[in-house]
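About this split. The held-out portion is used to measure sequence recovery: a designer receives only the structure tokens and must propose an amino acid at every position. Recovery is the fraction of positions where the proposal matches the reference. Here is one held-out target exactly as it appears in the evaluation file.
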């Protein structure tokens, strides 16, 4: 009926059956970008922001990793999978935006891009949460898949 993998032939939601697939090494990187207003950017010391709650970036990294590990519980039709690795980096780019990259990997029968996307998203939300006392004019501009390998087809954003 459709090309959507999570719909059966009657158009009903279903979990994709990966039972017959071969386990392969899979990796995915997702990116979230957060725009901070000047009053928040002024709080940078070195390569992080320190608040009464602690280090903004270190807390966001931990939150992102924790969230990536729970993706199967958060996204209804995602398979619950263990990850071999999850790494989050956070830095300011030339436009003074916070760039959050989450890279996750696993050897499994199903992909790991949702884990990378969830990790980057929750890290961005944590930056918002920890900085909102300074300003609510924080914008999480985008979250996108940068690349993935393994599975049916690889992807790399140009």
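Reference sequence for scoring:
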């Amino acid at each position: 009926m459709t090309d959507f993998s999570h719909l059966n032939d009657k158009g009903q939601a279903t979990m994709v059956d990966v039972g017959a697939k071969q386990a392969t090494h899979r990796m995915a990187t997702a990116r979230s970008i957060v725009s901070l207003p000047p009053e928040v950017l002024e709080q940078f010391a070195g390569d992080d922001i320190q608040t009464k709650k602690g280090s903004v970036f270190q807390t966001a990294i931990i939150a992102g990793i924790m969230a990536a590990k729970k993706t199967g519980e958060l996204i209804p039709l995602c398979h619950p999978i263990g990850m071999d690795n999850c790494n989050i980096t956070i830095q300011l780019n030339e436009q003074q935006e916070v760039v959050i990259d989450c890279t996750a990997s696993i050897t499994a029968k199903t992909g790991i891009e949702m884990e990378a996307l969830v990790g980057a998203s929750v890290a961005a939300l944590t930056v918002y949460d920890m900085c909102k006392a300074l300003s609510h004019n924080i914008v999480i501009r985008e979250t996108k898949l940068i690349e993935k390998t393994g599975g049916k087809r690889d992807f790399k954003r140009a």
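Annotator remark: The two ends are 32 Å apart (CA to CA).
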